[in-house]
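Suppose a classmate hands you a notebook page containing two proteins, each written out with its sequence and a corresponding row of structure tokens. How would you begin to make sense of it? This section walks through that situation. The first entry is reproduced here exactly as it would appear on such a page.
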Amino acid sequence: MLINHQTDHALRVSNSNDISPDHRIQPHRRLANLDAIRGFALLGILFLNIYFMANNFYGYAPHQPEIASDIIIEIISNFLLEGRFISLFSMLFGAGLWLQYQKTISLNSKNDHSTNNKVAPKKSSIKRRLYLLIALGAIHGVFLFSGDILLSYGLCGLVVCRYVTLEPKQLLAKSALFMVIAMAVIALISITLEDEQFYRGSDYFIEQLAIWTGSYTDQVVMQAYMIGYMLLIIPISILWYGASLMLIGIALMKQGYFERGFSHKQLGLFACISITFASIDSLLSLSDSAVLKEISGIFMMLGAIPTALVYWHIIVKICQNNPLRLTWLQNIGRLSLSFYILQSVLGIMLLRHWMPQWQMEFDRIDYMLLAIVLGLLQLFLAALYLRFFSQGPLEYLMAKLTKHS
């Protein structure tokens, strides 16, 4: 269960042959498309994380038997939400690594024209940022929300850095290999899991409810255990899945898809694959078999990728790299790290501390409505914040700590 649900950041130009002249990134230019996609992905993640902000281990507790509205929303989620935004975010993270790499080359070329001194600063600068992200993720995961993605992103990024200079075809081939490894391991783990019966009103539900609405100390202990578990799981599965998605993001950036989107033929292929896998995911997830429910996650993860690419295309075509289009999404994208943590703060405080009874009362539709309200609040806060500041607090801190000497 944890594997299926636990799985940005920076923002450039050199004489590298990995990218055609038409698609090189201009120095010091803000990429409106990527900001908008990042903002869209961050708001979308909330619709899945909101369940786990209540019960951090299992997420939503279904009724027994399930109610019609829950089934409808779950099917809609299987086609449009589940895994889609985390895939989109992961690809953006890979794109961000490529942009950091390009920016570092540009800065190094200004400071030192000697090619012999470029490699070390590039790697140390990017790795320093990733190490900080890992540290922030660990703190976030233990003390706030163990559904954290920053820790795994930082670890995946360290792997991906080794391949950032590869040609797009090589990146996609490496991505496919990593994906096969990840799916094979997840499949093996899934068929060995024996989860206890978790549904609304069960003894196990009451036990979990006591933890996640109980003392903060108990929650921290449980989340520390969960982060420890994730550190064991990440190297054998999530690391390869996340790295695979990040490599796709780098390939997309190098081929200019962040500016022009995809062809009609490509979009048709994405749609067919997505619908097929989502249909299989829905059939398996509604099964009474715990093993089949777990295996459905594999189809969810695979089907999420083409859907995420369709979302990528739609945002690109609407925004057209114009800072005056989809500004409300771009605002969130510019503050993504700070607002990712803010999501956790708001969700955790509401569902565990201020209104813990909601865990007993809320159905899926209630959680969806809450996510919409929190999303609208974030849009308002982002617009308000950027009237006075140009960077989010965590973005500013990361920039300071990773600033070139």
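The notebook's second entry, a different protein, reads as follows.
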Amino acid sequence: MNVRKILSILLLAVMVLALVACGAPKPPVTNQEDSGKKDDSSATGEVTSITVAGNGGKIEQLIRDEIAPKFTAETGIKVEYVAGLSGEIYSKLELQKNAPQIDVATFTPGDVVRAADAGLAEEIDKANFPNLEKMNQNYIYSDYGVPIFGYTVGISYNTEIFEKNGWEAPTSWNDLYREEFKGKTAYPEVSNAWGHAAYYNLVMANGGSLDNIDPAIDQLKEVAAISDTFYKNSTQLLPVIQQETAAISILANYVVTDLYDSDLPIKMIIPKEGAPLQSLTAVVVKDTPKKEAAEKFINFIIEETSQEIVAESGFYPVLEGVPLAEKYEPVIGIKETDNVYTPDFKKIAEVHEMWIERFAKEVVPELGKKVN
């Protein structure tokens, strides 16, 4: 065989191989390859699962164990739950901004404001959430989130310790620094959402405002003086209450009900100056490809049957007409005469760092001065 014939055969072989390669089917590009998120849609394109991020503990248990299974049974859509603190979830959304892996995020109010400002949450189309009209309007504070679990922050106290010592029950935010409570407090620090809620109410009760702490600086120093420490979070704070070392504390109602269920003699009051009515709020993550399924899940949580589960768990139901569980009425019930209001969460977010700085410089140095 001559050289020309050999070259012709080789060239023909190369052309055949090239044609085969061009005609071969390419593997499909899945969500996992494209964005790091697994492909969880059916062959018809129907969404079969969503990812929900929210707090751990009681909130995780309520969503993962109670609400999500019922949602899956009704819709066929599975719920993957990612637990974390509200601020941690916000950070995850920032990192995933260009390729969301979370479809629904639940936040405390301050982080809803942050998420909206940072373009991490979809603006709510109220037409897609008909139960918003049936909701207690005090819970609605943002166009970027849907309230799902109601709560407030009030003064909680051990009824047996109070009775044993002959102490009058607290009625005012100014009762936080009664000298008889020295060494018997379990107060969170101002960076904690519960602590900040209590202290800005104390400030406003004494003529101050969110951006003016001065009228109540002496009262805040007295709060510190009768306290051994300020607690960073509930993990540090709750053992002190459970061991009945503390007689008085600042807690959210859903934590009070847990303590009550564990046979601790505890009660929460709404101070006469008022208390902030808040909610754990669900947002649809900006640019999620599963927006419709995400909205469907949020709608499921604010249906009457789901809100009844919420009420039985010690949260306040956000839907009008759904009552708090009867067993919790004497413990955390809000009376018609109680003053509850919707705080200015945007302003709170603006001044929060200033409050932390001033507390560190002016209030924290007074800790424990009247205890020993």
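A careful reader of the second entry would note: Confidence is low (pLDDT under 50) at residues 1-39.
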